[in-house]
C-alpha cells in the first residue's frame, strides 16, 4: 500500500470499521485502532503512524488530552480531529494543542482519503478561511489576554505574512496582497514555521490570535 499510515481512535466500533474499510480500499494503510484516548496514546507511541484520526469525545481520556500527549511524544505525527459538529467548541482547543485539522464523521469516502493524504504530507487540512472562522468564533467567546510569545526572530516581512495568514489569506492571496511571487510567499511561510516551531498553517492561525496579531471580529 502507498500513502501515510493511519491510526483510528474512536469509541464506536462501527465508525472505526467503516473508516478502516474506506481507507484500505483507497490504498491507505490503517495500522491500528483505539477505543479511547488512553489506547490512542499507547497505540500511537507503539505504532508511530503518520496520521491519527482522533474522535474528540472518548471515555477515559478525551481526544484533546490524547492529542496533547501524542504531539508531545511524536512531533511528526499529524492529528485529524473527528467531530459531529462543524464548529465544535473543542476543535479550537485541539488546533491549539497541535491538531492539523478536523473532519465531520459523515465525511465522504473520497474526502476522507484525500484529507488523510494531505495531512500525511505535512500540510494543514483546513482551508485558511475555515480555520480563521473557527478560531475567530471561539477566541471571541473566551477573549483571553494575548499570549506572550517571542516573535522577535521574525523579520518585519515574516511578521506581516503571519498576520495575514491569521486573517485567513491563502498563499495565492498573500502573494497578491504583498506583491510577491507565490514561491517567495511559500519561503516566508516555511521560515515562520521553522522559527516559531509551528507544525502547520492551522497552528500559525491560532498563534496569530493568541498573540494578539489578529483580533476576533465582534460577534
TrEMBL record:
Protein source organism: Dactylosporangium matsuzakiense
Single GO molecular function: DNA binding
UniProt keyword list: DNA-binding, Phosphoprotein, Transcription, Transcription regulation
Annotated InterPro entries: CheY-like_superfamily (IPR011006), NreC/VraR/RcsB-like_REC (IPR058245), Sig_transdc_resp-reg_C-effctor (IPR016032), Sig_transdc_resp-reg_receiver (IPR001789), Tscrpt_reg_LuxR_C (IPR000792), WalR-like (IPR039420)
Residues of the Response regulatory domain: 5-120
Residue ranges constituting the HTH luxR-type domain according to the UniProt record: 147-212
PROSITE patterns hit by this protein: HTH_LUXR_2, RESPONSE_REGULATORY
Lineage start: Bacteria, Bacillati, Actinomycetota, Actinomycetes, Micromonosporales
Any coiled-coil regions, as ranges: none
A Pfam family that the UniProt record links to this protein: GerE
A biological process term (GO) from this entry: phosphorelay signal transduction system
4-aspartylphosphate found at: 55
Superkingdom classification of source: Bacteria
Gene3D superfamilies: 3.40.50.2300
Protein name: DNA-binding response regulator
